[in-house]
């Protein structure tokens, strides 16, 4: 989860988020270089006197300011396209989970299990126990195994919602009457928080998303207990 006064992104909890962080640093370095170069040009123009006020054009300068931006765009576009294709890649998911947004909670259905489905509501502030986070904790977490490709099917029952978990680098709109899909891999065990990222009504800020990544054996035990309770 995010920390107070945090300036950067959350720590990556999936391979896609690691790639996004690397791309962010890559693009930011290019932005710093361009900003420093422009600042240098401004300082030179202000501090130095113009030596030739009759120059109307310069082929060399025009070539430079055409070629350099083109190279810069290529350096940014190629890594960006690579990550876009990685985010859309879905190869033999171990588990498929359907998440449906409602006003104002999420429901989850493990489509590989016949009766494994539940609703996930935010825990009210008055019911929080020590160590739990306000507006982020849910009464039922979405439990997934670590280091396994998970396919999410995202939809909504009433209005537009958005299923987003920043530390996983995933965000997908939940549209009524439509199924959107995404995939992610939890690279380490832990609890990862997200929230609806589409303004969906009065209680928009009260429908958190909680993913709990556990080892495969623990996931199997959890699913067995959930099926027994059902």
From TrEMBL:
Just give the chief location class: mitochondrion
* Cofactor(s) listed: Cu cation
The subcellular localization recorded is: Mitochondrion inner membrane
The UniProt entry lists membrane topology as:
Multi-pass membrane protein
The reactions it catalyses are: 4 Fe(II)-[cytochrome c] + O2 + 8 H(+)(in) = 4 Fe(III)-[cytochrome c] + 2 H2O + 4 H(+)(out)
Query: Which part of the chain is the Cytochrome oxidase subunit II copper A binding domain?
Result: 92-225
Going by the UniProt record, its keywords in alphabetical order are:
Copper, Electron transport, Magnesium, Membrane, Metal-binding, Mitochondrion, Mitochondrion inner membrane, Respiratory chain, Translocase, Transmembrane, Transmembrane helix, Transport
Q: Which domain of life is it from?
A: Eukaryota
Give the cofactor binding note: Binds a copper A center.
Q: Transmembrane segments in this chain: where?
A: 27-51, 63-85
Q: Which InterPro entries match?
A: CcO_II, CcO_II-like_C, CcO_II_C, Copper_CuA, Cupredoxin, Cyt_c_oxidase_su2, Cyt_c_oxidase_su2_TM_dom, Cyt_c_oxidase_su2_TM_sf
GO CC list = mitochondrial inner membrane
| Family in the record | Belongs to the cytochrome c oxidase subunit 2 family.
Q: Which PANTHER family match?
A: CYTOCHROME C OXIDASE SUBUNIT 2, CYTOCHROME C OXIDASE, SUBUNIT II
The cross-references to NCBIfam families, in alphabetical order and at most eight, read: CoxB (TIGR02866)
Q: Which named protein is this?
A: Cytochrome c oxidase subunit 2
This protein's encoding gene? COII
């Amino acid at each position: 989860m995010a920390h107070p006064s945090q300036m950067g992104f959350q720590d990556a909890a999936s391979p896609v988020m690691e790639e996004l962080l690397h791309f962010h640093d890559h693009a930011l370095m290019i932005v710093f270089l361009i900003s420093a170069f422009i600042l240098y040009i401004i300082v030179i123009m202000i501090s130095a006197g113009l030596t030739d006020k009759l120059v109307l054009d310069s082929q060399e300068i025009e070539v430079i300011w055409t070629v350099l931006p083109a190279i810069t765009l290529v350096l940014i576009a190629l890594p960006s396209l690579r990550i876009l294709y990685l985010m859309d890649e879905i190869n033999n998911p171990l588990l498929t989970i359907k998440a449906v947004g409602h006003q104002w909670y999420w429901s989850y259905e493990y489509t590989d299990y016949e009766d494994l489905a539940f609703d996930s509501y935010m825990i009210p502030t008055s019911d929080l126990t020590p160590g739990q986070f306000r507006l982020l904790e849910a009464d039922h977490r979405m439990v997934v195994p670590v280091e396994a490709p998970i396919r999410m099917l995202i939809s909504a029952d009433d209005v537009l919602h958005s299923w987003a978990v920043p530390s996983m680098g995933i965000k997908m709109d939940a549209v009524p009457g439509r199924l959107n899909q995404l995939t992610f891999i939890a690279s380490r065990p832990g609890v990862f928080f997200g929230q609806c990222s589409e303004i969906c009504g009065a209680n928009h800020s009260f429908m958190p998303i909680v993913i709990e990544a556990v080892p495969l054996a623990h996931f199997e035990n959890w699913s067995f207990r959930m099926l027994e309770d059902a």
